[in-house]
Amino acid sequence: MPSTQKSYFLPPHWQLRPSHIPLGGIITSVTDEREILGKKDLSTDIDTEIYTKEAKSCSGKIELSYKGHLGVFSSIQLVRTRPEAPYAWKTEVEYRYACELIETRSFKPSPEFLAKVAADPAFKSRLKYNYLDPRAKVFVVTGVKIANKGSITHIQENLFATGDGGRMDNHRSQIPIEQPMLFAFQVEQVYFIWTGKLTTKAYVKGAHIGQEDNEAEDKAQDADEDLGDEDEANCGMETHDGLVWLVGLVGLAWLVWLVWPVCLALLVWLAWLVYQWLY
After folding, report:
1. Where along the chain do its domains lie?
2. What are the distances in angstroms from CA 54 to CA 91, 103, 150, 207?
């Protein structure tokens, strides 16, 4: 039965070759094109089974919706000064695709593979501090969908609310698929938890489409998402106990700084009581 959870992200733009976001690639964002393209390619280091599923004569549509506004006070000011300018908007996007073949490839990263990610200087510092800075993310591309021969029709409708009413514009274009093209990708986030243990988990926040043919996905997710201590030792992966102690000391210092005025007030009060008792 097909999976209903959305787990695949659309690429930053169409007509990307599969090599631009390869299976086994390491990226630091699923939305920022600069942090997706041109990152580390560890596809040749995959040492576990790659599951493949093919779907022929594929067609369907993907619907996306975006909306936003300037806020109450900004909107009021804009309506007064420039009634023709938009203060709220909504964008409806629809992708209709039809292609001869969509190939889905996925794998489950091994402890040895993740050790290479953690040892890479480009990602080592991000992994160390990702629980202090939520933006410091590292992802492994664990699944890709590759489309062959067909086309994608892009339909976009923009609605704008303005002080003098509103306006709408439409956009329609067709994108040919003349050679293998990256259709979608899925990722797992790699990170150290506060104990210093390396962990992976599926990252689906903001994903656009689900796994239509979920056989490969189910097989790839049979393994535990958390690596055991024995696996970490066997692959020579370092933990960060020292960093954990540092975070603990910083937290203790912050707590002392927070309560020292109360402690000082109590000491003054006790000194006053002693003085009253003695004199």
Report:
1. 6-237, 240-279
2. 33, 5, 15, 21
